[in-house]
Amino acid sequence: MDFGERLKSLRKEKGTTAKQIADFLDVTRSAYSNYEQGIRFPDYNILKRLCDYFDVSADYMIGRENEDGTKI
Questions:
Q1: Distance CA 19, CA 2 (A)
Q2: What confidence category does residue 16 fall into, taking pLDDT thresholds of 50, 70 and 90?
Q3: What dotted CATH number matches 3-61?
Q4: Which of 6, 10, 40, 57 has its CA 20 to 30 A from that of 69?
């Protein structure tokens, strides 16, 4: 699963809309959509805020580990 797919999956699991997350991140809906589509990768600050929002590690978010913390 790539970053965009993982991000979209986390959003759906949490039951939030893309607009809600874009507002939380203080980015445009279009910018957030680009993250989910894999067109853009967020900078470190946005990535950190996404991890905090979804309560996951950066390694999980970028696909280096599974949800249980085991390395991929």
A1: 21
A2: very high
A3: 1.10.260.40
A4: 40
